[in-house]
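Fold description:
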Amino acid sequence: MKIAILSRVETLYSTRRLKEAGEARGHEVDIIDTLHCYMDVTRSRPAVRYKGQKLPYYDAVIPRIGASITFYGTAVVRQFEMMGTFCVNESVAISRSRDKLRSLQLLSRKDIGLPRTGFANKPDDIPDLVKNVGGAPLVIKLLEGTQGIGVVLADTNKSAEAIIEAFMGLKANILVQEFIEEAGGADIRCFVIGSKVVAAMRRQGAEGEFRSNLHRGGSAVVVRLSKEERATAVNAARAMGLNVCGVDILQSKHGPVVLEVNSSPGLEGIETSTGKDVAGMIYSFIETNAQPNKNKTRGKG
């Protein structure tokens, strides 16, 4: 098969592993810089051009769309969908997952466990907003934040109100969430491919850090999921419409709750901690499912 990986940096671990794994299985794999693609939007013959040439037909595209280029990146994916190319994750699903508020609303509609979350616009809503999620300690998140950036833990109601006012003064969109203290600064990253959790790791934040991101000094070990945790991860991926994703779960006293669904999950942490060939599993999914015009939305969304 001829497969394209949309990625800004070909030296990244995830991009390298996807190229190596694909070639090891006999596929022809090209790495294409998403921002250097440009689109020929024309009647009946949509095309993607790259470095002065029309790109050839690909059997499948693996989008690795960074959060900072979501708008343009999903437009490129949508163009491939219009050409009939099978996209591992579709443009609509990527857009859903990148909008934190939208994704939580969709998960809520599917009755999937979530930290209690508030969203408001006017400063006079703040005291009730804080009270409604259970009061301090609570977590305040920028809607546009990624990798733990723009996430603040407020220890008291007064500090929470002050932080929220400051963010609102900057015209920033924020979420306010209950703090799951019993999680102890740890979360579980479930790697979902298709309708199955293929690997999972527990990420523990560094001492004194409530965020468990590995690049912030956190550590990761393989973990065995409960039936409920496994079902939560699969249902969250399905609610987003993602075929390949990372679902981040906290273990709370009222069961597993979903923090985030990541449409471009990194491979290094999960492969290193579990010893599993996750990149190879992605190709196994492609080999089974890639067919022309098989995308659900076909570029309509």
